[in-house]
Amino acid sequence: MLSTAIIGAGPYGLSVAAHFRRSGIPFRIFGRPMDSWLAHMPKGMMLKSDGFASDIYDPESAFTLRQFCAERGIEYADAGVPVKLETFSAYGLAFRDRMVPELEDKMVISVNRSRDGFRLQLDDGETVQARSVVLAVGITHFAYVPENLAHLPAEFLSHSARHHEVEPFRGRNVVVIGGGSSAMDLAGLLREAGADVQLVSRREELKFHSQPTGKPRTRWQEIRHPQSGLGPGMRSRFFANSPLAFHYLPERFRVEAVRRTLGPSGGWFIRDKVIGKVPLHLGCTPQGAKVQDGKVRLNVRAADGSEREIVTEHIITATGYRVALERLTFLNREILTQLKTVMGSPVLSSSFESSVPGLYFVGVAAANSFGPVMRFAFGAGFAARRVTQTMVKTLAKSTASAPVAKVATTAE
């Protein structure tokens, strides 16, 4: 019986595994390394997170992004130098090689309850028994497509998570729907690749992060707007540094804070690739679409109530991700029905354990319990430390309570 199985090999899964390894917790980890980054984000994009907030976490901070870039001769700064997708992906693979060599590039196709924990079925036919399971699945399981567009055939509609390569759209007419970084990154990259691209957003104004000035911050600025892994400001500092305190806030406040905090916005570096270069339809909400004569006719409603039609060859919805546990099709139906949820996300204890004993969730699925930091790589450090502390205690208890065989003694 394995102590713990980790499902997922992105920043959260790798961070948890590195901590388990250092603490001597027996585990196996399954998944394609850095899959969301290598296969589901557009080549050429850059991370919104600053360099110091883009680490994958080992217990001793022995292999940071800064160190990786220094070893490879890649330009790096804690802030002010955007982190390229290719750099972060390569860092994740190097972290795997150095810190989590146990990673098995296998997919878990089913998770069922068993008498002593869980039974996992792998895509190569192997069955694994584990007392605990840590789900560190990425965002791509939860890609959201508006219901009024979901009926369109795949030939005419796709989610941004499907497009690591934008070159196939060269010379084609494309409409990107969304107002966040995914939409703006993709629109800018599509234009550079030679696509005829338009951006549709219900937001009346696109928002961008402020460009660093390069000047030292004053003491007053540091006090009033302290820097954090989620950006400057007291609220961001709290969300970034105090996920456990966030967990003890009233549930209604937590859910609303996660919904409203750090809304759609683009990195400062994408502004010049979009503004004045990509046709924008702002304040426009998609009402529906139909295919006619080999083209998609998208109907949108403007803020003033007027409607118009946009004709295109393909629509890409960069409309984000919404946690919905039923999308995790590898989880047995019995487990799904026993999971207590709020707004589609699991209700978690202070140790990331769900209502199903022994089943833990880290990453985006834990955001409603521990705050918006769980939507970013920066939250992986806290999650890894917290889950490891719990597993160490659980392992110690199980060892202490293990039955001891009777020993025959001889009388003197």
Architecture blueprint of SSEs:
Elements: E1 2-7, H1 11-23, E2 27-30, H2 35-39, H3 65-72, H4 85-99, E3 108-114, E4 117-122, E5 127-135, E6 157-159, E7 173-177, H5 181-192, E8 196-201, H6 219-224, H7 234-241, H8 243-247, H9 251-260, H10 271-274, E9 280-282, E10 285-292, E11 295-301, E12 307-312, E13 314-317, H11 333-338, E14 341-342, E15 345-346, E16 359-361, H12 367-370, H13 380-400
Parallel strand pairs: 1-2, 1-5, 5-16, 6-13, 7-8, 7-13, 8-9
Antiparallel strand pairs: 3-4, 4-5, 10-11, 11-12, 14-15
Helix pairs in contact: 1-4, 1-13
| Average of pLDDT | 93
Report low-confidence residues grouped into runs of 5 or more.
404-412
Strand content: 15-25%
Largest sheet: 6 strands, mixed
**What would the principal axes of the Cα set say about the shape?**
globular
Topology pattern, helix = H, strand = E: EHEHHHEEEEEHEHHHHHEEEEEHEEEHH
Helix content class: 25-40%
Number of strand segments? 16
Gap from first CA to last CA: 40 Å
| Number of contiguous helices | 13
Q: Which structural class best describes the helix and strand composition?
A: alpha/beta
Written overview of the protein:
28% of the residues lie in helices and 20% in strands. A hairpin with a 2-residue loop joins strand 3 and strand 4 (117-122). Helix 1 (11-23) packs parallel to helix 4 (85-99) and helix 1 (11-23) packs parallel to helix 13. The two termini are 40 Å apart. The chain contains 13 helices and 16 strands. With 412 residues, the chain is an alpha/beta fold. The protein has helices spanning 11-23, 35-39, 65-72, 85-99, 181-192, 219-224, 234-241, 243-247, 251-260, 271-274, 333-338, 367-370, 380-400, and strands at residues 2-7, 27-30, 108-114, 117-122, 127-135, 157-159, 173-177, 196-201, 280-282, 285-292, 295-301, 307-312, 314-317, 341-342, 345-346, 359-361.
